[in-house]
Write a structure and sequence with these properties.
Helices cover about 30% and strands about 20% of the residues. It has a twelve-stranded mixed beta sheet. Helix 3 (about 100-110) links the parallel strand 3 (about 90-95) and strand 4. The chain has a single domain, classed as TIM Barrel (Alpha-Beta Barrel), CATH 3.20.20.70. The two termini are about 25 Å apart. By secondary structure, the chain is of the alpha/beta class.
Length: about 325
């Protein structure tokens, strides 16, 4: 459906859990407390919302967390999602720790797009940024997914000034011989870590300048799996592309096509605003499909033109 600014909204991001086995510096506090599981929507409740979204014209669905592969039963949910009539694409965003053990199942059930978070190629730094992640496990999963023709793999790296910005060129070079895209994401100053934002922000223009100084770049063509805000270039002769996601220096709102459903049942029109609509209450208190459709349609149509400011929250609450 179209929102009030004429944007076609067809992408629903579904966070299935706020839990994660990593504690990435920019995402959540080290000693974060997660919600009790009963506070989260059941998979049946999520599927009900998906069926209603299909009636509104949604076609693309991304399952996120936290770490979605931590939630028991998520593979069955993904399989049910893929099978729904009208679903064009089902994707997953993961930190990669459990990806290797589930990769074959994901391919079998029809998940075709994987976003993988890799903020550093240096083992010690990877462990530091993720507060204890296992770089070898994630690297193995990345290599296997990149070599599997069933998957479109995008490697996401949040660029942090003074922390991993000296790896921009090395990360970009992953695209030379591997069938994957590397996407550089500007750090967004929200959440408990926002006081660090001025020092951490490396604008996309600086990333692009660095890439041009090292590589011969050409425009990167759009692909079938591209439904997000990245702008792409390609190193001449490379197999993969390089994407730039600019939520700060060049707000990516003008082409926004997504809504968000959080694990605890909040329907959000924008990642970076406080306002939301509670669908869990309707789902659990006898709300009809018509009631839910009316709420869903109104919230989608009323999407803000752009994000206004940032608020205090952890990224795992909403899903990246």
């Amino acid at each position: 459906m179209l929102d009030r600014f004429g944007r076609r909204i067809h992408n629903l991001r579904i966070s299935v859990t706020d839990r994660c086995n990593y504690r990435c510096l920019y995402c959540m506090p080290e000693k974060v407390r997660f919600r009790p599981s009963p506070e989260n929507l059941t998979f049946d409740e999520m599927l009900r919302m998906v069926r209603l979204s299909l009636r509104l014209g949604f076609t693309d669905f991304r399952v996120t967390g936290g770490e979605p592969l931590l939630r028991p039963g998520v593979l069955g949910f993904l399989e049910d999602l893929v099978k729904l009539e009208g679903v064009r694409r089902v994707a997953i965003t993961t930190n990669g720790h459990l990806l290797g053990r589930h990769l074959e199942d994901l391919g079998r059930i029809g998940v075709r797009s994987i976003n993988l978070s890799v903020d550093s190629l240096r083992p010690d730094r990877f462990r530091e940024l993720s507060r204890g992640g296992d770089p070898a496990v994630v690297w193995d999963a990345m290599e296997r997914a990149a070599a599997d023709p069933r998957f479109s793999l995008k490697v996401n790296a949040v660029v942090l000034g003074g922390m991993n910005d000296d790896e921009i060129e090395d990360l970009a070079a992953l695209t030379l011989a591997r069938d994957l895209d590397v996407r550089f994401i500007e750090y967004m100053p929200f959440g408990y870590w926002e006081e660090a934002a001025p020092r951490q922000l490396v604008p996309a223009s600086e990333i692009l300048r660095r890439l041009r100084a090292r590589f011969d770049l050409e425009p990167g063509e759009s692909g079938e799996m591209d439904t997000g805000p990245a702008e792409y270039v390609r190193i001449r002769g490379a197999r993969g592309r390089i994407g730039l996601i600019q939520p700060v220096s060049d707000k990516f709102c003008r082409d926004c096509n997504r809504m968000r459903l959080t694990a605890d049942g909040r329907l959000k029109a924008c990642l970076l605003i406080e306002e939301y609509r509670d669908v869990k209450g309707l789902l659990r208190n006898g709300g009809s499909d018509e009631d839910l459709l009316s709420l869903f349609g109104a919230e989608t149509f009323g999407k803000p033109e752009k994000h206004r400011n940032y608020r205090m929250f952890s990224m795992n609450e909403t899903g990246g």
